[in-house]
Amino acid sequence: MPLAATSELAISVTNLSKHYGERAAVSHANFDVPMGTVCGFVGPNGSGKTTTMRMLLGLISPSGGSGTVLGQPINDPAKYLDRVGAMIEGPAFYPALSGAENLRVLATLGGHSLDQVQDLLERVGLGDRGNSKYKTYSLGMKQRLGIAAALLPNPQLLILDEPTNGLDPAGIQEVRDLLRSLANEGTTVFVSSHLLAEIEMISDSLVMLREGEVIFAGKTHDLLLQQQPIILAKSADPKDLPRLLQIAHEAGHEGSIIGGVAHILGPREWATTLNQLAFESGIVLAQLSPVLPTLEETFFEMTGAGE
Amino acid sequence: MIRVFFAEWRKLRRPSLFIGTMVAIVGASALVTSLLFLLIDSARGNAREGQVINRASLELPHGLSIGFSSSAGLLGLVALCIFASQTAQEYTHGTLRNLLVRQPRRLTLLLGKFLAMCLFALISVILSAIVSITLAFALSGKAKVVTTAWSTSDARIGVLHTFINVLLSVIAFGTIGMILGLLLRSPISAISIGVAWLLVVENIIAATVKHSGKWMPGQLMNTVAAGGDITATYSHALLVLSAYLAVGVLVASVLFRRRDVTN
To answer: Where are the domains of chain B?
Structure first.
């Protein structure tokens, strides 16, 4: 279901597919990304995220389907890439050049002002290391430089593949704040990450992939509301947990043990019943808390990635 | 196009690459010209493959540029390495995806890179010409070569012709390097295969199969640099070499335009 009219969409793809021989890296993907929003792009490794992003950037030709980016067809990327910033599959620069010179190469190529290079380095926290050679950068610094490069065209659309890889917690928060502020300024951000808590915090909408197929595309809030609430239960004696799951199962509620805690699907009100049933079976509960599933839990449930 | 050219030039002008290469060019040109004059009386020869270039030849108007044209093979190998590495490294560093996001017209990107590398080759040929000609004058006394003819207009025209021929030859070497870089996507593979073919395989074939040299690209590039030699005439070398390069450029361009960028 489209989220907005075509003119208000930064990205729109219909039946987008990419096949390598018999294998479908992306299969009939359909999703829209509204303008001015942060859209998270999630899926297990090998689910087709990077392939999709590469198709949106004209780096890979689709095997089928169609799409538009900023209103222009993806088979003519020259029409929109001057308004798009991107970092795909990690940062990639010339090791023998400084960070600033690497940015100048890309700015020259794209016809962007060289004056903004220092400002961008400051913005990503590399202001004092711009003249150091790229090969001396840490992984986090390389990642920051990649984000700076993506910001060179002052983009209407920013496509970022795992931008927080290698960053420390403070760096992750900085990137999160940066993406949010860019969205507030009107930039559309399409971002993939394995840090689902981060995605949950910053994204307005979400596209979820599994084995090359889109299994959810829509507002993040709607996805979480669709999920069944969970009751987290921890017994005083960890050996009682399987028996607790059995009791829940017999009462029609499925569950699993994750990290020494039973995760049982069921509404908030049923927690009282579970407590009663556990007590009657001689199980002492040390914790009983009904919660809504996080994006991470939803992700594992929908993609089966944790199995 | 102009933006691609200047972006590529930014990479080529970095001191470690530019100064390092130019020092190598000066060294190679100086070595070839010095050997030409200092070994003029050596029975082992004073030029490529043991050839003897005697005083009578060096004292002709075109004798001034023989050292320069003899350096063309080495200049060409340097050009092959530069063109191949500058092209293939975009794959190994993964930087091609950045370039294509900023310049999605792939053939424009390729042509802009090529022109920037041609400028690099032009500077190296100019430098080689200056070093070779300066050394020719400097060593002529020691080698007892009379230089009266070197000051004539024929000598100046000869230098100009040699310059054009060496430049064409060096760009041809570079183009082969670029084609290999595009096809193999690895600097090490492109350079090693290119150099091994030109220095080893071609020489073995030329030594074992009669008249094969006139069909070998490496031999033909040397023939073009020399303005024609015993291997082939200048026009034959230029024609066959152009045909080889046209086919190579066509195949590499089509592949570059159509191939998915997955690294």
So the answer is: 2-258
